[in-house]
Structures are given as C-alpha cells and as structure tokens.
Amino acid sequence: MATSNYYEWQLFNGNQWVYINNDFIIETHYCQPGASGIRINLNTGAVYIDFDEMTADGPDDNLAIRRNTLLSQNQKQEVGWYYKDNHRWCEYGSQGWGGRTSSIGSDFIEQHFNSNPSGSVQFTAGNMTYSVDFNAMTQTNLSTHLTRKVRRRPKFNKIVAINNSFLNSSPTLASPSTNPSNSSSHFIWEFMGDEGIWTEYQKPACSLDSAEIERLYQLNPQCQVSFTARRFSYTLYFGGMYQVNDRLGTRRTVRRIASGSQQTNNALSQARWQFKDMDGKWKDYVRGGSRGKCSVSSQDIEAQYQQDPTAIMSFSAGRFNYELDFSAMTQTNLRTNTRRAVQRLQQ
C-alpha cells in the first residue's frame, strides 16, 4: 500500500495493477523537476519509470505506471511549473539565468492549465515575451523562437486547503457504505459517453474498473483519482462526480449506482438544447458537429443543468471557447463576446 494518504503509485504487470512498496521514494523523485525518471528493483527485475511520459519499461511486456491522488475536495497539492534554463530547472517566478524573473508564477500557470489543459499562456521576462504550450510542454521565446522544455510537478508533502464550491454542488447517487470491505462489488461506476449513453468503466479499455474505483471511493469519497483509457489520461473527481480528460480538458458526468438498479436515461434524452445561429435558425448542440467540433451534446448540457439550473457551463467549438448561462439562457463567445440565445425543449 501507499505510505501516504494522498497518493499511491501502482504498476500494471500485464495482468493487474499492483501496489509498489515504499512508493514514497518514487514520489520524492517525481517531485524534483530535474528528475526524468527513476529505476526501481522488483522481484521480476529492474523497471524504469519515465516521469515525463508516465511509462514503465522493464523485463515484462505491457507494463504501465500510474499515480493515484487521494485528496479530499477541500485539499490540493501545490504544483510547481519549471523551465530548463541554460544550467538548471527554474521555477516560474524565481530568478533565472542572467537575473531575469518571469512576470508569472506557478499558481498563475496552473490556473490557466486547469481551465484549458490543451491551451497556452504568454508572459514576459525582461524585454522578451514567451509562450508556454501545455500540449508540447515547451516554452518559446516569441522573438528568437528559442524553445525550452517545461515540466509540471507536485511539491512534495505540500498540501493546502481550498474552498471549491463547485465540487460541493453535484450530488452523488449513492452514499458510501458503512462496510467498505464488502461493498466494492455492489456498485457500478459509469460515465456519460457519446450522445448521453451511460458507459461502465471496464478493463481492458480502461485502467480502472468499477470495483477499483469503488475501493478508492471508500477510502476517501471526496478525493480525485487518475486513470488511463486507450491513449488518454483522465482525472475522476468524486466530490463533483465528473471526469476530465487531462489533455483536452473535456468533462463528462459520472455516476455511482447500486448494482442491479434500473436507472434510465429518459430524463437526459428527452431534453433538447439548441442555440440561435447567425442565420436566425435554431441549431442542436451536437458533439463533433460539422461546423467545428463541439465539445458537448444536448445530453451533456442537460446533465449539468439537472445538477444546477443556475450554473454557467464552459465548452468549446472549433477554435473558440464559450460559456452557456442557464439563468440567462444565452451562450457567449469568450473571444468575440458574441452572445446568442439558447433554448431547452422537452421532447
């Protein structure tokens, strides 16, 4: 088991995920920005863990590595953002080589990263302007085009309290069992897939299944856990009951239901959300539509609406980001400030 209550490192040995003993050694190295990886010795041989790619290489095929975070909804681990200077890794906001200090710090970059993990952020240092690309994890001087590596690493044992009302606004469908040891098989975990179809977490497509998610939920029903599905990594937030694609930022609703319960999708599938386009016609929200890929469908919007009819929901379409205001029934383009009417139809 993990030696801390807020993280655990696990290795997939080709058959199942297993705990890594003394994983605090891995965590200590991972929190160092200059560490590319670590080699650990197991009974089956030496395994190298690549921190940048989050991969494992060793004597067996199909090895994989993951780091689960077990923080409560009012906690977060401080995160540092670093760039590779001429001689060392420097945290943003500190003085780098040549005495220059960037105009932004780790907290500022982390806020932008959380709002759009596939985006970028610009800043100045001296008389130069730079851009940090979250996808490529690089920093580019916009004048000289010099590119440097960037790393995002947690700070070891630095846990701070936060106040996140959003996580408290989404109710769960079932409460934790008072007998965790016997409950993991009695609940099914599902995410809302394409076009409003609830899909269970299952192996081998996903690195976690319902039983493992339930075990982590019983340990801390307000924590967040990391997992992979095919080539993407995700974070599942128990407090808010949603998952986020760590690279694309796509958010999907999650639910926990008792095994054998007969819940349906009727409430979500019967609602239809539309926006009034520039030609004056009402158009459906369709994920991956032809006019620029939309990140949400009517079912996604309805799920958020059911949780909080007064909320503001963020989404993207093509190269633009939008906000959908349920109270005002409008959508706003965050770049152009263009506002369009929205309607909700009951079929």
Automatic annotation (TrEMBL):
Residues 67-152, 172-256, 259-344 form the WWE domain. PANTHER family: NOVEL PROTEIN, POLY [ADP-RIBOSE] POLYMERASE. It comes from Danio rerio. GO terms for biological process: protein ubiquitination. This is Novel protein. GO terms for cellular component: nucleus. Its main location: nucleus. Pathway: Protein modification; protein ubiquitination. It holds the Pfam family WWE_4.
